[in-house]
Amino acid sequence: MGLVESKDYVFCPKAGKVFDKGIVIGTKAYLIFVPEITKVFEGSKRITKTYSVAGVSIAEATTAMLSKEPLDEAIIFAEIEQWDIPGTEVLAIKSLDGFKINSNWLNSSIVIKKQGVRGWKPFCSSLGKSGKSFKAFYQDMEKR
Fold first, then answer.
1. Residue pLDDT, tens place only, 70-79
2. Which positions ≥6 away from 123 have C-beta within 8 Å?
């Protein structure tokens, strides 16, 4: 049997970073962000880039990928690597000095502390309605 949502992984179809919007997948070992819309600043110009997979939005492509049977981390990584979306981030949770999920009535986010780097940095500044499921999923794994 493959991976099961909320037991083996969590998924946020509408995640945000400071200038990017995309999806976040969390497993017990990895955090993955794939951007769908990015904003790049070149001088005084702001350029917005939108990415898709075979004409389908990143969120829809990810939902289709996660519904495959059997599903495992290797399939997730292979598909995301095949998409070749610039700005995709894959973080091994073991490599972090700390990570925590903030979830309250106003906002939900993931903040991380990388090894050898001082202070906390946002990995994902907005999880929307998925914040509570991420908080519950990583409840026993958060490193502070």
1. 888 888 999 9
2. 31, 33, 89, 91, 99, 110, 111, 112
Reported pTM: 0.90
Residues 27 and 25: their CA atoms lie apart, in Å, by 7
Strand order in the sheet with 121-124: 96-103, 108-114, 121-124
d(C-alpha 98, C-alpha 115), whole Å: 8
CB neighbours of 66 closer than 8 A, spacing ≥ 6?
5, 9, 11, 25, 76
Round the CA-based radius of gyration of the chain to a whole number and report it.
Answer: 15
Structure tokens at 88: 């995709």
Look up residue 5 and give its two tokens: 């949502």
Query: In the chain, where are the structural domains located?
Result: 9-137
| Alpha-carbon span 137 to 32, nearest angstrom | 15
Beta-bridged to residue 90, according to DSSP, are 32
Using CA atoms, how far apart are residues 118 and 101, in angstroms rounded to an integer?
Answer: 18
